[in-house]
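Predict fold of MFS transporter; 154 aa.
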Amino acid sequence: GYAMQSFFIGVGAIVASFLPFILAHFGVANTAAAGEVPDTVRYAFYFGAVVLLAAITWTVVSTREYSPAELAGFDDAEPPAHHAGTAISGPAPWAQVVVWLGLGVLLALLIAWRQGDRMLYVLAGLCAGYGLLLAAARALPATHMLAAIVGDLR
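Predicted 3D structure, encoded as tokens:
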């Protein structure tokens, strides 16, 4: 749940930041008088508000509440035994560490060699950073918070 929520928050932020550009591409005015907000920004804000309200409405309509008896039953529940050691283990994560770190380094070298846009270094850093997160989660106990979050991302 947390990983999906974080994913959709990130996607929403990216779409929101691109929306004024997209609206301008379709002919919406991107300039305004001094002290005014451009139409692209205003419409992007309205669109975001509608999407936010739709998401809240969807959550309210589609999510059921538990009765007090059901909630009390959760207190006695035991976590599944198979989850404790599977957050991040086995040979695949080490391969993933190497792939993500290598991809980050190769991208940085390619950007430097081709004299690419400096903003592309952010992408290279994110790839290498994810590799470092995988390595850190691998070194921690499977019950550690970081290992659980990175396990959800995998």
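The first helix runs from residue 2 to 25.
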